[in-house]
Write a structure and sequence with these properties.
With 159 residues, the chain is an alpha/beta fold. It has one domain: HAD superfamily/HAD-like (Rossmann fold). 35% of the residues lie in helices and 16% in strands. The protein has a six-stranded parallel β-sheet with strand order 1-6-5-2-3-4, with helices on both faces. The two termini are 13 Å apart. It binds magnesium ion. Magnesium ion binds next to loops.
């Protein structure tokens, strides 16, 4: 099985958000761990926090995470001034669709941004929304075995 994200970039800052805005995109759904913060850290990197604040002017921002640890999610929510949705069960699209319906938006309005092909990108593909694959926010400090597993998963990606 091959998965083709609409865009494949190294880091969040490489995404052409202006182009997404011009395409009529209104909602940016970000994966949590390794996409907007180092895995299990519960802390945004300052540059990510700054980027998200800036993007709030043009888009509805939300986190869509498969994480189901309520203490952890509570910690993330305390640091976020936008919706943080847990138990997303990506690549299933149910939770994503329910969220878009709740805010009165459609799949055409939305973009899903994440670091994992088999959960994030596949979820976006299943929902037929625009997808952007980013590399892990901590890619430079990850253990070799983690990088290897990521490399293996990315064998599913068609550029
Ligand atoms: Mg992730």
């Amino acid at each position: 099985m091959f998965i083709k994200p609409d865009y494949n970039v190294e880091k969040l800052e490489d995404i052409d958000f202006q182009a997404l805005k011009e395409q009529g995109k209104k909602v940016l759904l970000f994966d949590l761990d390794s996409t907007v913060m180092p895995s299990k850290s519960g802390e945004y990197l300052p540059k990510t926090k700054e980027l998200l604040q800036k993007l709030k002017k043009d888009f509805t921002i939300a986190i869509l995470s498969n994480n189901s640890n309520s203490d952890y999610i509570k910690k993330v929510r305390a640091k976020s001034d936008f919706a943080v949705i847990s138990h997303a069960k990506k690549p299933s699209t149910k939770v994503l669709r329910e969220y878009l319906t709740r805010i009165g938006k459609t799949t055409d309005d939305a973009v899903l941004i994440g670091d994992r092909p088999l959960t994030d990108i596949l979820c976006g593909k299943n929902a037929k929304i625009t997808t952007i694959l980013v590399d892990s926010v901590t890619k430079d400090t990850e253990h070799k075995i983690v990088r290897f597993v990521r490399w293996l998963e990315r064998l599913t990606i068609r550029k």
